[in-house]
Amino acid sequence: MIELNSKQRKILEKAAHDIEPVVIVGGAGMTDGVAQMTEVQLKAHELIKVSFNEYKDQKRELAEELAQKCNATLVRILGNRAILYRAAEDVEKRQFEKALAKAEK
C-alpha cells in the first residue's frame, strides 16, 4: 500500500471516472470471494471500482479492510463506490507510474 498525495489522488480519480465497478460487496459482506475477486481484478487492471450494494453505512471500514487484504491503496470513496489502486507487478504494464511519479514532486 502506498501513500498518495492530493495530486496523485486526482490523477487516479480522473482515470477511474469512466470505469464501471468490477467487484460488488453484497448481502454476504466481506467474504473471501470478494477479496479473491478484488485480487484478480487488481492484477488485471491496476485501478478498479468496488460497489457497495449492502453495508453502505460501513463502506469506509470495508473498503479499508479490502485494500489492506489486497495490498492496495484506497484512493477515494464516492457515493457507494470505492476506487482501489495497486501498481501492476509487471513494470511494462504499469499505466500510471510516470504520472504518479511526476505528481509526487
Mean pLDDT: 93
Main sheet overview: 4 strands, mixed
- CATH class category name: Alpha Beta
What is the number of independent domains?
Answer: 1
Rg, Å, rounded: 13 Å
Strand line-up across the major sheet? 1-2-4-3
Number of strand elements: 4
CATH superfamily: YhbY-like
CATH topology: Translation Initiation Factor IF3
Number of helices: 4
Write the layout of secondary structure elements.
Elements: H1 6-16, E1 23-25, H2 32-45, E2 47-52, H3 59-69, E3 73-78, E4 81-85, H4 97-104
Parallel strand pairs: 1-2
Antiparallel strand pairs: 2-4, 3-4
Describe the protein in words.
- The protein is 42% helix and 19% strand.
- With 105 residues, the chain is α+β, with helices and mostly antiparallel strands.
- The protein has one domain (6-104): YhbY-like (Translation Initiation Factor IF3, 2-Layer Sandwich).
- Strand 1 (23-25), helix 2 (32-45) and strand 2 form a beta-alpha-beta unit.
- The protein starts with 5 loop residues before the first helix and ends with a helix.
- The mean pLDDT is 93.
Salient structural properties:
alpha+beta, four-stranded mixed beta sheet, 105 residues
Q: Summary?
A:
With 105 residues, the protein is α+β, with helices and mostly antiparallel strands.
